[in-house]
Design a protein that fits this description.
alpha+beta; 9 helices; 17% helix; globular
């Protein structure tokens, strides 16, 4: 018997199911019904498809020229389209009647409300024929812009037809690689040096257990072969954004990729969420750990291997990238409780990966609570030092007072082989004072550059009205991005990286723990950066001595982020943004620091 999923609600709103986001439409009094099936799928990794049973096609005059039976997708609160822009539509389909050719009308419309004909924005007609799955394409060009468009697929032929993998993508994307231009540009403007992905508890399935573990091999190759997956945050991943697209994005922005793989140990909250942090982990038997090791070795081959000799590298080349992605870093694990079982699995993977690829820098995890005194943190560091791990990933989200007052890395042992990667951190609010607290903390991180090798704010992107974690760095809706106050702090630090730190060039009058400073020299660009943060309510004066540096210019670029402590950038107001001006530069300078301000001077040496 065929596997059929029914009945189901074609307008599903609660959770995810076969018809989520789709609804049946019957313009012109057409008749039919739809059915989710799994008996003869497009691919075993993508088992569910939709069958359209068209029983009658109505008359054009009944519905202002609109007819056919089919389905409609309204996107996430509407689909934004631009007049004159081109949108690529594709789908897989097959008619079920031998020798039949089914006519399908694909359209972008603006819904006009109950009982009214939609406004046609763009349309094309496809002829579906043959007896097996085939891919069909159309280019839709809207006649006008619309913020709430919908996509319609209408059968104009009586009979049955299967459809799957319906896609609508703008042709105008960042470097033509399918990602929204404004969102990627906001990321590029941070001047990032690397990107960690796929992110957080997604890696090991989070509270949902091993079945939800992110496996990179299911996210590469043709999209119709990728295995979709619900993640621990409660939404579905189509894997249209998979490892190939992540690596491609890193290359487009000149970031080092830092993929994170699971290590055979689940999140400590498996099947119980984070309220059950002390429950036992699910652990892969050691007899099965070679599979997880092989996943890591195959990923390195996929990213860096020669397509002529490596099957995985050939998969990369077949996708359009024959050249190596030059993978240098590989993370193993994410915030797992550092139990003896975790240590055994991690050591097993680490030893075998480094034996096969000593050139790859392995990044480990310090567990879910990355402060000294936390048992997982202490056990994570003990394990790292035992095996000589190059980098250990620490995570912590704290109230602003922690970042305002703590200087965790000042007390770390010097000369330790294992360096710190502060991989996830943020103050737990979105106000200017939180951003300044993070700036203070990052200035102390720069002072401890011999201890901390890398930092990355998290999370990065969040969809407006669909956010389950705050704060985030870049918010977005269907039309634009919204930059948090912390975004500009990250941007200023991303711009001002270098090779040398000087801690004795700036003196701040009446300094407290609410003021920090650093001077960074980038020898590659011969640029000097002076950063000073004042997170207090009092004005301060910074005395700057740059006499040790040769070739000082006459002018410096001054960037200031300032405002009231409770100022916050949101969807309706954006009061916080850097002010940029040119000032005179000299070997000895005075810099007036307004209350609640972060200032950066940029000087290009001659």
């Amino acid at each position: 018997m065929p596997t059929i999923i029914k009945p189901f609600n074609a307008n599903e709103r609660d959770g995810w199911g076969p018809a989520t986001a789709w609804k049946v439409i019957r313009p012109g009094h057409s008749l039919g019904w739809i059915e989710a099936r799994m008996d003869a799928p497009l691919h075993t990794n993508n088992p569910t498809y939709m069958r359209l049973h068209t029983e009658r096609v109505g008359h054009y005059y009944d519905y202002d020229g609109w007819t056919g039976f089919g389905i409609q997708n309204d996107g996430f609160s509407g689909i934004v389209v631009t007049g004159g822009a081109k949108y690529d539509f594709s789908m897989f389909a097959r008619p079920l009647t031998a020798g039949q050719t089914a006519t399908v009308r694909v359209a972008l419309v603006e819904p006009q409300g109950w009982g009214k004909s939609p406004k046609l924005l763009a349309e094309d007609t496809l002829s579906i024929n043959g007896s097996s799955w085939s891919e069909y394409h159309a280019v839709l060009t809207p006649t006008e812009s619309c913020a709430h468009a919908a996509l319609q697929i209408l059968s104009l032929t009586v009979g049955d037809m299967d459809v799957d993998m319906l896609s609508l993508m703008p042709q105008d994307t960042y470097k033509g690689h399918g990602l929204r231009r404004d969102m990627v540009q906001a990321l590029a403007d941070l001047h990032p040096k690397f990107m960690r992905f796929p992110g957080g508890c997604v890696v090991h399935g989070g509270g949902d257990g091993f079945w939800a573990t992110y496996r990179w091999k299911n996210t590469v190759g043709p999209r119709y072969q990728r295995q979709q997956l619900k993640n621990t945050w409660g939404y579905n991943q189509s894997m249209g954004l998979g490892y190939y697209e992540y690596f491609q994005l890193c290359e487009d922005i000149n970031m080092q990729p830092l993929p994170i793989l699971p290590c055979g140990v689940s999140c400590q909250g498996t099947n119980g969420g984070w309220s059950m942090r002390n429950q036992a982990q699910d652990v892969v038997p050691m007899s099965q750990m070679d599979e997880w090791v092989q996943d890591a070795l195959d990923l390195i081959e996929w990213a860096n291997g020669d397509p002529a000799t490596s099957r995985w590298a050939k998969l990369r080349a077949d996708a359009g990238h024959p050249a190596s992605f030059n993978l240098k870093y590989l993370g193993i694990g994410n915030e797992e409780k550092i139990t003896p079982e975790f240590a055994e699995c991690f050591k097993y993977m680490y030893e075998r990966i480094t034996a096969a690829h000593p050139e790859i820098i392995i990044v480990g995890t310090a567990g879910p609570g990355s402060h000294p005194g936390n048992p997982d943190f202490d056990n994570g560091w003990k394990l790292a030092e035992e095996i000589g791990l190059p980098i250990l990933d620490e995570h912590y989200y704290e109230q602003r007072d922690y970042f305002l007052t703590s200087r965790q890395y000042d007390s770390y042992p010097r000369g330790r082989q294992t360096k710190v990667y502060l991989g996830e951190y943020a103050a737990k609010d979105k106000k200017l004072i939180d951003a300044l607290a993070e700036a203070l903390y990052l200035l102390h991180v720069e002072r401890n550059g011999d201890v901390v090798a890398m930092t990355s704010y998290a999370p990065l992107f969040a969809k407006r009205d669909a956010t389950n974690w705050n704060p985030d760095l870049i918010y977005f809706d269907n039309e634009r991005t919204y930059l948090a106050c912390s975004y500009y702090v990250q941007q200023m630090f991303g711009l001002s990286s270098g090779q040398y730190y000087y801690g004795d060039c700036v003196t701040i009058s009446d300094a407290t723990n609410l003021q920090e400073q650093s001077v960074i020299l980038n020898t590659k660009t011969r640029t000097l950066y002076v950063k000073v943060c004042n997170a207090s309510a009092d004005a301060k004066t910074a005395s700057i001595d740059l006499s040790r540096f040769k070739g000082l210019p006459k002018n410096a670029t001054k960037t200031t982020l300032a405002g009231q402590p409770d100022d916050e950038n949101n969807y309706d107001q954006h009061p916080i943004a850097p002010a940029v001006e040119t000032i005179r530069a000299s070997k000895s300078m005075k810099l007036e620091l307004a209350p609640y301000s972060f200032v950066m001077l940029q000087l290009t040496l001659k």
